[in-house]
Amino acid sequence: MKNPLAALVMFFNIIKKSRGKVRSPVKRCSAFPEGLWRQFSLAEIKASISNFRQGLLLGHGGFGDTYRGIIDDGTLAVTIERFGPLGLQGAREFRTEVQLLCQLRHANLVSFIGFCDEQDEQILVYEYKQWFA
User: Fold this and answer.
1) What is the mean pLDDT of each run of 10 residues along the chain (133 residues)?
2) Alpha-carbon span 80 to 113, nearest angstrom
3) Which of 15, 38, 44, 56 is 20 to 30 A from 76 via CA?
4) What CA–CA distance (Å, rounded) separates 99 from 102?
5) Both ends of the chain: CA-CA distance in Å?
């Protein structure tokens, strides 16, 4: 997208509209842009954050919990956003969100790394940035 602000507004509208909807069955889909993302297994996600250990919890958001994790044999710190019951989306909405995140690149935004959509879990993975006050 050429206008990052419009992309963000569209992103939040998609999330807002999808809140409270019943999830449809998960299907593997090849509609994601190739090479711009990484699909993680649930086992990889659980290993990176010690099975959703509370000590790695960064915060609670309107759509779920956010954790700090380590992937790639301890070489890359990531932020993992796990959608909660109120943030559940259907497979189509989740796929649209991933596609949008793949297109967003800006110096002031954390980079989207990948996702996990397995066993009724919807998880997004971003680069981790330490912010100083």
Assistant:
1) 56 51 38 68 92 89 85 88 70 80 81 88 88 60
2) 10
3) 15
4) 5
5) 31
